[in-house]
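Need residues for this backbone.
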């Protein structure tokens, strides 16, 4: 058998293994190129080269070339393993592109596992909500950091202080606040309009923002509280700002940058200093 054929077989298997690693993602919009997965595919390809050549030595008679392949594969394996473990070439955007498919796997397994115990189901649902929120946030941050919009500091909660359980229950950690998915039944408690615009971090979840299409009131859920918002701008245009004392929410259409992963971005700000952004889907007409 030709050594060229052997090399093409290993190369093809390596590429196929890289592609197969994405088959357990939950949705196609979660598929991002990942340096780490490239290194893992190369690592597995090098391992396959050693195993396959060891089993087929009778078909390859060039001892010098066989030794070179073994040594080369071991070197590639060691280098790939070091790159995976050290993450030395992985920047912030590369890290997030790798984490999105990883989070997507958690969504898929948590949603589709046959769970009976309500405690485990509650844990799985919390994982789903957290992973979807973080995927939308990472999509936003990839665009920010890749375009050079890097911040030097972010809001941090004050240091913990001694206190009682009552103090703990009444304390709100600003840094952990986040917009929660809001079912239509909850939105209707604030909005009267029949035609509404919504922002979803993921197509599979309830919106985190509901807005009257005519530019009236809007609504969000924060820390278990339904909050009414005033509207500035035209929600139907795809770009508008919604505000209440202490907070603002801005929605902006991505325009030409929109794709199958996201068509809009939402930035949530508190006057206390917290800012969080997400990329997702904005729709008017409900």
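Answer:
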């Amino acid at each position: 058998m030709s050594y060229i054929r052997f090399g093409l077989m290993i190369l093809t298997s390596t590429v196929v293994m890289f592609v197969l690693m994405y088959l357990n993602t939950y949705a196609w919009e979660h598929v991002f190129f990942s340096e780490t997965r490239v290194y893992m595919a190369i690592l597995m390809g090098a391992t396959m080269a050693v195993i396959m050549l060891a089993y087929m030595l009778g078909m390859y008679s060039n001892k010098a070339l066989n030794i070179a392949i073994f040594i080369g594969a071991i070197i590639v394996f060691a280098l790939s393993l070091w790159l995976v473990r050290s993450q030395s070439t992985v920047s912030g955007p590369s890290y997030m592109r790798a984490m999105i498919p990883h989070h997507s796997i958690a969504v898929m397994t948590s949603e589709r596992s046959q769970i009976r115990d309500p405690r485990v189901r509650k844990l799985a649902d919390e994982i789903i909500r957290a992973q979807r929120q973080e995927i939308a946030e990472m999509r936003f941050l990839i665009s920010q950091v890749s375009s050079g919009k890097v911040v030097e500091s972010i809001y941090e909660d004050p240091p913990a202080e001694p206190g009682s359980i009552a103090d703990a229950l009444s304390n709100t950690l600003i840094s952990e606040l986040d917009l929660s998915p809001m079912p239509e039944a909850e939105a209707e408690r604030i909005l009267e309009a029949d035609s509404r615009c919504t922002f979803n971090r993921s197509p599979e979840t309830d919106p985190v923002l509901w807005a009257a299409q005519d530019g009236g009131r809007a609504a969000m859920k924060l820390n278990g509280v339904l909050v009414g918002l005033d509207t500035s701008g035209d929600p139907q245009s795809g770009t508008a700002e919604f505000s209440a004392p202490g907070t603002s929410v801005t929605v902006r259409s991505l325009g030409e940058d929109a794709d199958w992963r996201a068509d809009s971005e939402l930035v949530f700000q508190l006057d206390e200093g917290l800012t969080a952004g997400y990329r997702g889907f904005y729709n008017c007409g409900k």
